[in-house]
Design a protein that fits this description.
The chain has 202 residues and is an all-alpha fold. It has nine helices and no strands.
Length: 202
């Protein structure tokens, strides 16, 4: 495991300090094999200190995943707020923002969709994930309402869109989108193919 900058904790919000340390470790190593003892050591507190805020390592990981979904949602919302000429363009920049988030936060993104981030046992994590998904639904509903997208079930549009976005994100952070296989701009090209199926032809 690579070293992160160790800044001993002295005062203030211990819970946030532990989360900041764990997020830094996740970003540095791109995995979550660390223990609560290691998080405590790098935060500069006793081995028992994390248990005041997290029942176990799994609870800490679920909270990291929740933070990830909140940040992803903020990223997608910011992309959606841009003034663009069409719903198609708005969908494209929103999808690209999601994929870019994954590329910039590969360890966190993988954790968000791993079995260690069990949304069925953590209502807050579940809600954060659904709030992010609703951002995608928002742009899809707008496209249906303004006639940009085909009048099919919104669930079908969402499933196709999410599968494409998430699949591209996972391929990108695994360095599988090789130019010799998928061209120079595979993300943009793949999204355009998806949109050709969702949108009416001119």
């Amino acid at each position: 495991m690579s070293e992160t900058n160790e800044r001993p904790y002295h005062h203030g919000d211990l819970r946030q300090a532990l989360l900041d340390t764990a997020l830094a470790m996740l970003a540095a190593d791109q995995n979550w094999t660390f223990t609560l003892r290691e998080v405590a050591r790098r935060t500069g507190v006793s081995h028992a200190a994390p248990y005041k805020h997290f029942r176990d390592r799994e609870e800490l990981l679920r909270e990291l995943a929740r933070i990830g979904f909140v940040r992803l949602g903020e990223t997608m919302t910011e992309a959606m707020s841009l003034e663009l000429p069409s719903t198609r363009a708005q969908f494209t920049v929103t999808a690209q923002a999601c994929i870019e988030f994954a590329c910039q936060n590969p360890g966190l993104y993988r954790l968000m969709f791993s079995s260690d981030a069990d949304k069925t046992i953590d209502p807050q994590l579940h809600d954060a994930a659904m709030d992010t998904f609703r951002i995608l639904l928002e742009v899809l509903k707008k496209g249906k309402e303004d006639g940009s997208f085909r009048p099919v079930a919104i669930q079908a549009l969402a499933a196709a869109s999410w599968a494409q976005m998430h699949g591209l994100a996972m391929l990108a952070i695994s360095n599988q989108l090789l130019e010799e296989k998928v061209g120079v701009e595979p993300v943009r090209a793949a999204l355009y193919v998806l949109l050709d199926g969702m949108c009416y032809s001119d």
